[in-house]
From TrEMBL:
One Pfam family in the UniProt entry: Spectrin
Organism: Caloenas nicobarica
Coiled coil: 3-64, 215-242
Entry keywords, A to Z: Coiled coil
Keyword Acetylation: no
Signal peptide stretch: none
Entry protein name: UTRO protein
InterPro entries: Spectrin/alpha-actinin (IPR018159), Spectrin_repeat (IPR002017)
UniProt keyword annotation of Iron present: no
Domain of life the protein comes from: Eukaryota
Amino acid sequence: EKAVNLKKDLAEMQEWMTQAEEEYLEKDFEYKSPEELENAVEEMKRAKEDVLQKEVRVKILKDNIKMLAAKVPSSGHDLATELNVVLENYQLLCNRIRGKCHTLEEVWSCWIELLQYLDLETAWLNNLEERVQMTQNLPDKLDTVNDALESLESVLRHPADNRTQIRELGQTLIDGGILDDIISEKLEAFNARYEELSHLAVSRQIALEQQLQMMRETDHMLQVLQENLVELDRQLTSYLTDRVDAFQMPQEAQ
């Protein structure tokens, strides 16, 4: 009777594993929204816990069959053979569910990381847009234009590492068919804004550099003119002091 019960327990265990495999491993999942992906992750975590909890039952079955085999070798031999099959299938099921759970957790982590990088780069784009707007309608002052140019250039020196991460993470998820529509839409909007603002910022940078160069050249010309006027004033003062007749002076002094 004990052998019959153990045989029944082995059959039930095998049936449960078959159902678990069908439910958790053979479904074709499509993750088209973050909610679907998050739910799948939580479901697979529960599946992993459920499968691992059966380890106690498997151990009890193993111990009982060993005890029976020690007492009734003939009955125990057949059960031991069935037990080995169940043990192999159980270990395989555990490994596959662990693997799938780990994969889904990695995918979810990849999605969260992508959102974080997008937030960082969006904040940078907002800052860049603000700096570009600040370069409009500047007072015609050398220091003001120079400060605006340096401020804009400091933002433009932003490293490209985050954008590389965004591209790689997004492509990894899209290649896996995970959230591909949402990610494609997000990346398209981000890249379009990045290209537009970058082009505008570089154009403003060039314009400010040209404006600054012209202002410096003008400033230099005014400085030279001022020095010439000072020298001319000195010469005229000397002429007046020496009471030199105007017609005796050089033409430029006249």
